[in-house]
Fold these 4 entries.
Entry 1:
Amino acid sequence: MKRRLIFEGKSRFEKVIFDNDSKLFYFYFEEISLIPTDFWRFFKNNKIEHISKDNTLKYHFQKPEIDLIPFLKEELINENLIEVEISVNNDLILFFSSNKKIEIYITSMAFENWEITINNKQYICLQGGNNIATFN
């Protein structure tokens, strides 16, 4: 299987939310919404800047804890999402107008790994990433 481009265009970043109860991030762009259900990495200039698993960690310090929401808002505030790609392993890759990207990885063989809605078409990475379900 080859990589599959599921979006190409310009979709302006709107907001990102972290839900403390579910421990999930919710990303919103013009006409696009994304819920990564587990692990993702944020890259800038081909360098890993942050990993989602670090959000809210304090390590050995009481403060400050790692809070990815302000970081993501600052990094994405003037960005356009220009491409969304599904890799050969069904990881999801978001490319931005500058040299930034988010890679969402398959981390479970039992649960859905991510879901993205683009212009009312929904893509869901099913168990183990073996299949992508689409709904119109």
Entry 2:
Amino acid sequence: MNDRLPTGVAVNALVRLIDQAGGSVMVLARGDRDSGIVLLLVEAHGEPSLLFERGYDREGRRCVVRVGPESGDPHELVDYWQRRRRSDPDLWVVEVNVADAQRLAAETIFAD
């Protein structure tokens, strides 16, 4: 039995958490509500944008990993997630702008 929250519920929890933290969040693409993968597009003032998703560390434990173009160029990041979405229509893309975005995501959408 899988005890993970459905993706749609986890994304809604992240949206509420970021709102409570005074940040902004926008769901750019909705995927499968039960089991879609989530790409997190982290925006920070004066910093390059970054993409994250759930992955594994070297010991095989779940963690948040950076994905996509290294440049942080907004156009390259959009191209990247749109290509991913074309090949995986179940993919969610969530743009966030809040302090400590990775930790908040790890507690909600990337939690086991």
Entry 3:
Amino acid sequence: MKQLIAVIAILIVGCSTGRAQNATTADTLRAIHYNIYTNLAEPGANGATVKIDQPPFLKQAVTQMAAKNERTFTQSGYRLRIFSDNKQNSRQESESLVMQFEVKHPAVKAYRSYSSPYFRVSIGDFRTLNEAKAFLEVIKFEYPKAYPVKEKINFPPL
């Protein structure tokens, strides 16, 4: 059983390493939503199919792991911090700032967080510092104290 899992892992890694340097966001999204069971069940170019003979618990374990990975997919990236304060009314300020920002920029997500003793508001999901700085140029007159911060970000939409 462990050998079968190891062989599958080696095949997947082996197939993906050749394309890893040229991988795009679309490739990554396809990899996230890729289901080997449905792909193998579909007939190939010559009508051939592959039947996997395995215990049901193994397929269930792989399906559960894929669902868990899909729910928790984040990556290292950048956001713009537009607010960070620890005054008594900082919570209310951060809440109103998030609402105001989402009205002005509905395409960009705003995130409110609390890390004792600071309430913070960060915006965007930028893969690179250059992307974050480009958006900073757009909002710098509205939020002159905004600055980029490195954080775990949600995978940005295409």
Entry 4:
Amino acid sequence: MSTTPDPRPLTGEPVALDLLNTRWMHEGAVRDLLTDTEGLAVWLAANGLDFPADDTVLRHVLQARDTLRAAVDGPPEAPEAPEAPEAGEPLADAVAARVDAVLAHGRVRLTLTAHGPGETPEFSDPSWGPAWLAARNYLELLDTAPDRIRRCAHDACILHFFDTSRNGTRRWCSMAACGNRAKASRHYARTKES
């Protein structure tokens, strides 16, 4: 368990999006929490994932992050990130194959517990656990509300969130940060025109 504080500006999103949010913008530069196993330990602890923070887990988590980024944002060379796929709309076959490759390292065993039906994840190699859990969570988000998987609307922000607002109109990772910056920019543009 890491005792290092989490430096990221947005935490607490579902694990798939929280993994994407291990990269963020700070003062015009991209920061990356997962540059080493110490950062991995911070991310694992933030998500309550009890796995070792070693180089093998880090390699698998980075592979999952790149895969999820391609699934959510589209390929890096795409000029504009597409919206999350609509319900029933297929992901690009290559991206789906990458997600499936991560998911191939685990499975869900259905169980009956004292509280009713349950699920237990099982992994072919435990070092794939965090990566597999993030990929599985992405599938759950797609199943729940694919149109609510969002990238912050601020041009300079690369964070993602799952919109849980009642009417589904959240645009910013944080109204206090990106939302206010956008409002200030619009205000500046209006006053400059006057």
